[in-house]
Amino acid sequence: MTGIYLIVNKVNNKVYVGSSKSSVHRKKKHIYYLRKGEHKNKHLQSSWNKYGESKFIFSFLEEVSNKKERIKREQIYIDAYMSCNPKYGYNKCSANCAILSEESRKKISNAVSKLNMEQAEEIRKKYNTGRYTRSQISKEYGIAVVTISRVLNYKIWRYNGNLSQEEKEKYIQEKNKIGGSNKKKSFSGSNNPKSKLSFEIAEEIRKKYNTGNYSQGRLSKEYKVGKHTIRMIIKNIYWRE
Question: pTM above 0.90?
Fold first, then answer.
């Protein structure tokens, strides 16, 4: 499957968001290097070593065939889960950063380190007054214009705190509304499978499935949602306990 995938640590709920032309192949690659202890993501490797393979879930989030669109969708999920923040996830950088050279990553990292969240919000407020250009702000803070643009476009310093699961879902829905895409699945508005359910119903689904008397297909028909949604609920990805 081509699209966006998610790795979840069931112990602390930290996540890694990724995208790939073949999520099945990418999953095998992740597991191969994690088992060998040679994964390039040291944070993820450390957690894998600490909690064990059984504490991690791999799941497929969304099918997106177009490469450029895939990167955009990946970034939406990274933002929603705040997975670039080591408190909440394992991503080392944004989706766009993942395709940059090592030198470019270092430049971005050094630029970001000169700011803090309060300064980023201050920059946005100044720019929105209409009295400051990006160049003026760049000189005032000693930061490159391209970095100022990334701050203004919320590419860096996005949030001043964690998001709840409900807020993550709303964020993804709003992003879906803003720009069209070539994706095959939509998670906005009435098309959002989770909007048909509630936390109580999700718990009910898990309980029924755990009795062994209900298959995922049967639950899908009973609650009139896709099998993928049922699977994500059972795996505790949607409507987490």
Answer: no
Domains of the chain: 3-96 (3.40.1440.10), 99-152 (no CATH)
**Quick check: 93 and 17 in contact, CB under 8 A?**
no
What is the C-alpha to C-alpha distance for residues 23 and 51, in angstroms, rounded to an integer? Answer: 23
For the chain, helix, strand, coil in percent to 5 are 55, 10, 35
67 closest CA partner among 90, 91, 95, 102: 95
- Residue 136 tokens, joined: 């003026």
- For 37-92, how does the pLDDT look when each residue is reduced to its tens digit (9 = 90+)? 999 999 999 999 999 999 999 988 888 889 888 888 888 888 777 888 888 889 98
Residues 6+ apart with CB under 8 A from 219: 205, 208, 209, 230
Output DSSP code: residue 91. Answer: -
Are 93 and 105 a contacting pair, CB within 8 Å?
yes
